[in-house]
Specification:
CATH topology: de novo design (two linked rop proteins)
Number of helices: 5
Structural class: mainly alpha
Distance between the termini: 28 Å
Shape: elongated
Low-confidence stretches: 4-13, 15-22
Number of domains: 1
Mean pLDDT: 84
């Protein structure tokens, strides 16, 4: 819950920066809005993915391989979140996002995807959660591309 509050405060700060900026042309306003929307989407998608991966870990029970793969995915998502936090800090400071931070996010998403792809469970509920996690991970990656393009 504390992590959610931290992410929410960063999100509010992003929006506040956009609102408090000097008057801008309509095209710039549209780009700023697209940027803010992409930021919200990446944060929301990552949070949903983390929740779904945690559900897989909890539901794995005696399936050690599934629990281990989901734990690997969770660690990769934590790494990606650290990169997202660095990018957010740079944007709030009015700086370009560091390439190293972008690389961290990209690698975290890739590692989480590989870990999720390795889960082979016979439990339909686990498979459904893994599918949801993969879908949200893909949404997070797409939103990240929009942040890079629009911010």
């Amino acid at each position: 819950m504390a992590r959610f509050a931290q992410v929410l405060s960063l999100l509010i700060a992003f929006c506040a920066c956009a609102v408090s900026a000097a008057p801008i042309a309509p095209a710039q306003a549209a780009a700023a809005l697209q940027c803010d929307i992409a930021r919200v989407q990446i944060v929301a998608s990552v949070n949903r993915t983390v929740a779904e991966v945690n559900d897989v870990i909890q539901g794995a029970g005696a399936d050690v391989a599934t629990a281990a793969a989901a734990s690997t995915a969770a660690a990769a998502l934590q790494s990606a979140q650290a990169g997202i936090d660095q990018i957010a800090a740079a944007l709030l400071a009015g700086k370009a996002p560091p390439q190293a931070s972008r690389d961290i996010v990209e690698q975290g998403f890739a590692d989480a995807g590989v870990a999720l792809d390795s889960i082979v469970s016979t439990d339909p509920a686990i498979l459904a959660q893994v599918t949801e996690a993969k879908d949200d991970l893909e949404s997070a990656a797409s939103a990240g591309e929009l942040v890079i393009a629009n911010c």
